[in-house]
Write a structure and sequence with these properties.
The complex is a heterodimer of chains A (about 260) and B (about 170). Chain A is an alpha+beta fold. Chain A contains ten helices and six strands. Chain A has a six-stranded antiparallel beta sheet with strand order 1-2-3-6-5-4, with helices on both faces. In chain A, strand 4 and strand 5 form a beta hairpin. Classes of the chains: A alpha+beta (about 260), B mainly alpha (about 170). The interface between A and B is large, with 56 and 70 residues.
Chain lengths: ~260, ~170
Amino acid sequence: MNCSDARPFLGAYVDGELDLVRSLDVEAHAEGCEACAQDLRRLEELSTAVSMAPRFPAPQKLRRRLEHRSRGRSLQTSPWLLLAAGLAAAGLLLWRYVPARTQTADVLTEEVVQDHVRSLMANHLLDVAARQQVEPWFAEKLDYSPAVESMPWRGFTLMGGRLDYLGGRAVAALVYNRGGQFVNVFVWPMSGQPDRAPQNRTVDGFHVVSWRAYGMDWWAVSHLNEADLEELAMCPCFMPPNRTLPVDESVKPKSD
Amino acid sequence: MRLGRFEAVLLPHLDAAHNLARWLLGNSQDAEDAVQDSYVRALTYFDSFHGEDGRGWLLTIVRNTCYAWLRKNRSGVERTESGQDLELTPDTGPDPEVMHLREADRLKVQQCLEALPTELREALVLREMEGMSYRQIARMTAVPIGTVMSRLARGRRRLQEMLAGGVRKEKT
């Protein structure tokens, strides 16, 4: 890692937003680079400075007003805001948050796409690369272990795995490569729910396919087209074989 | 039942709500009104809240209420770009590299933060005071994580410049 690699990540390093591997990269670089080390110190000092800025806790009278009135559901909207923000705020809310909250799947779809983009942009695709190590590595980090298979004869080569964070929990991300395009497959347990056929969504040009099988929720995301992603979803390790697409036996290796 | 849950989920975040509103709007009276109205709105929409992050949900409402107010009452959300004109309290500490934060320094930090454009100030307040993750901030402010990162970076750079400006004034 050189300065131009490290510099964009210094803030995220101080904020504790980098994964372990990248944190160690930044630390290793800063050990040998006085300029970046100094930048890190400045960022930390600045954090201290901002933390010294005053907080403004709610005044007691406001707290009491809200406590009392929320019980009687008689909170009054102050006149200025009715004039100022009534429609605007409601419109913003409806548009920005309420639909997102009521359609959890959409929030998740966006998160899945963001995770995918971030994994490519931050050059942090893999925590563990060797195929044989992926399964035990996940078993160590998570309380479940997804099936991990490489399927080169179907055109999907397993690159490795990564821990990621989705819908408020740590999840496994399996990374596949098909013709130079990467696919992230996020998986987490969802026991006691009936299986669900693949569903397609598209966000910002990324295709997302989600399904439920083997007591797990699976979300695959990529720039690959939908048909390719669905083909991945139909692989027997992701979906019980009675629903899989036929495999071209001629290209299947003898053992894998 | 519903109100009980409303109180349990949202009232614990009253201080955070007020702090955010105060930093966004710049004065106590507006902040109080905005928080009260945000709670009214939260109550109205509470049935649509199924999540686990009550604070994020509430702060999003507070934020949107404050922004609507800013749009209406001030021409443009960018409150001021003239941070350079601030009268900074000179730093008389012996070592400018180490910030000895006395009352005057706290005031200086406050002034500099307030002089930042709203969006940069908001990112810093959510990150540094509320300890929110990039992802939470991104969701709250409806921008990509990359934008959150660049806002934080810009906010910090400008804050550093403003704070260092005070030091330089003293030195030269």
